[in-house]
Design brief:
The protein has 10 helices and 12 strands. The two termini are 60 Å apart. It is α+β, with helices and mostly antiparallel strands. Strand 3 and strand 4 form a beta hairpin. The protein folds into 3 domains: 145 residues, Beta-Lactamase; 86 residues, Orthogonal Bundle (Helix Hairpins), CATH 1.10.287; 149 residues, Heat Shock Protein 90, CATH 3.30.565. It has a 5-stranded antiparallel β-sheet with strand order 2-1-5-4-3. Strands 7-9-10-12-11 form a 5-stranded mixed β-sheet, covered by helices on one side. Strands 6-8 form a two-stranded antiparallel ribbon. It binds adenosine-5'-diphosphate. Adenosine-5'-diphosphate (ADP) binds next to helix 9 and helix 10.
Length: 454
């Protein structure tokens, strides 16, 4: 019930108006009623005094001619009687109310029914020209005041619902007009699917919340589109990377099946197959790690880790591999006691990946050096090489998944383009940042900054 904003707004608005109108009508009714009865009573008292005067002026005639009395009262639509000081009735029709001392004493007014009609009476004390005291009871039918009040109620009964009906209609039209851009937005947003994520919702010309909402929706669609594009590219790259070793493996298996060969030949084929399988395992392991880092499911320890120590060990491990290629790997300045809170295995991987790249993309006689130092509350790492360098246009994509600089030419024999994206994810998982600077033919420098422990 009332699920739509349109209905809720309209009902709320009509309800508020109804409360205001009713409060206004009630206040008006009671004020009018008080005033009308007040005026009515004043007029009765005035007429009562007139009646007393008439009675005294016509004292003798009235005693003999009661018709005169009745015609006087009949003309006024009134009822009344005159009593002497002891309370005995002097004149008055037989149906007129009796004189009640208690009532007279209280506040000099009362209501009574005469001939089936309601009258309002007042009790006045009057003196005749000789100074004798009399009581005059005089009343007029209340009907007239009642009728005016009834007319007022009838007016309210028609006017208030009619006004509410108009307000409801106008309110609905107004709310519908105000909310129609939301409807348009909703319809457009509804039609956007995975296949047409490049579509955008129209942006209303008038400034305001709905325009802001449309802009926010479009920004969100932009982010979603980029994320989907990345996922698509990632899936196709991953499939592509796995396709080559799988095709190699298949070729080798088919070769082994086609012709008979000696044990040594089979062993060679199997050894080559095992190499392809380990290549694929390596890719799949890396993909799994990336997925876990993305979804923050990778379980990273939080231990105090001495970065200088980790750098030293990594450099020592890679030194002989570098030496084979004619590349020197060395720890240049490893400040002791630069500690971070993190996972030692993951941090070792960061150093190994960066140093390995320095060796892989090094040249005969080039050098890779690692420096670790503390700067304020940060632990800083620099891994600089004098290798082949990276073209400027590749730098913005360097940390993208499966990105390889030499991709255009041939498949790199040494990597799959996942190393740097894993490195960045690991650094970020430790709350750090990584940047790169490079000049082709001169060398490459990676900077890692991590929050240091006190
Ligand atoms: P890969 O596994 O292919 O090495 P990475 O993600 O580690 O993938 O590196 C991506 C690309 O960046 C590499 O293909 C390489 O061309 C380039 N690259 C990375 N480090 C260096 C470096 N120290 N010197 C020159 N090029 C580098």
């Amino acid at each position: 019930m009332l699920r739509s904003l349109k209905s809720r707004l309209t009902v709320l608005y009509v309800a508020i108006l109804a409360v205001i109108l009713l409060a206004f009508a009630v206040a008006l009714y009671f004020t009018a009623r008080r005033d009308l009865y007040g005026d009515f009573e004043d007029s009765i008292r005035r007429q009562a005094r007139g009646f007393a005067k008439f009675s005294f002026e016509n004292f003798d005639r009235l005693q003999t001619d009661p018709i005169l009395f009745e015609s006087y009262l009949g003309e006024l639509g009134a009822s009344g009687a005159v009593f002497d000081a002891s309370g005995a009735k002097l004149f008055g029709p037989s149906g007129a109310p009796g004189f009640d001392r208690a009532r007279a004493a209280e506040d000099g007014r009362f209501r009574a029914e005469v001939g089936g009609k309601r009258y309002r009476f007042v009790v006045e004390t009057a003196r005749d020209p000789t100074g004798a005291e009399y009581r005059v009871v005089f009343g007029i039918q209340e009907e007239r005041v009642g009728r005016r009040l009834e007319r007022m109620l009838l007016f309210f009964a028609i006017f208030i619902p009619a006004l509410l009906l108009i307000a409801w209609y106008v309110g609905r039209v107004f709310v519908r007009g105000a909310l129609s851009p939301v409807d348009t937005l909703r319809k457009q947003a509804e039609s956007i699917q995975r296949s047409n994520l490049s579509q955008r919702v129209p942006i209303p010309k008038t400034r305001g919340e709905i325009r802001d909402l449309a802009i926010t929706l479009n920004d969100m669609l932009g982010r979603l589109e980029r994320a989907f594009d990345q996922v698509n590219a990632f899936t196709s790259n991953a499939s592509h990377e796995l396709k080559t070793p799988l095709a190699n493996l298949r070729g080798e298996i088919e070769l082994a099946l086609e012709r008979e060969a000696d044990v040594a030949a089979y062993q060679r084929l199997l050894a080559s197959g095992a190499e392809e399988v380990s290549r694929m395992t390596h890719i799949v392991d890396n993909l799994l790690l990336l997925a876990q880092l993305d979804s923050k499911q990778a379980i990273l320890r939080r231990d105090p880790v001495d970065l200088g120590e980790v750098a030293k060990q990594a450099a020592a491990e890679l030194e002989p591999i570098g030496a084979d290629k004619g590349v020197t790997v060395r720890g240049a300045m490893l400040e002791p006691g630069v500690r971070v809170s993190g996972d030692e295995v993951a941090l070792r991987r960061v150093f190994m990946n960066l140093l390995e790249n320095g060796v892989k993309y090094g040249r005969e006689g080039s050098e890779v050096k690692v420096t670790v130092w503390r700067e304020g509350s940060s632990a800083r790492v620099e891994i600089a090489d004098t290798g082949v360098g990276i073209p400027a246009e590749s730098l913005p994509h360097l940390f993208d998944r499966f990105y390889r600089v030499d991709r255009g030419r041939s498949r790199s024999p040494v990597g799959h383009g996942l190393g740097l994206s894993i490195t960045r994810s690991l650094v970020e998982a430790h709350g750090g940042t990584i940047t790169v600077a490079s000049r082709e033919g001169v060398g490459t420098t990676f900077h890692v900054t991590l929050p240091a422990m006190e």
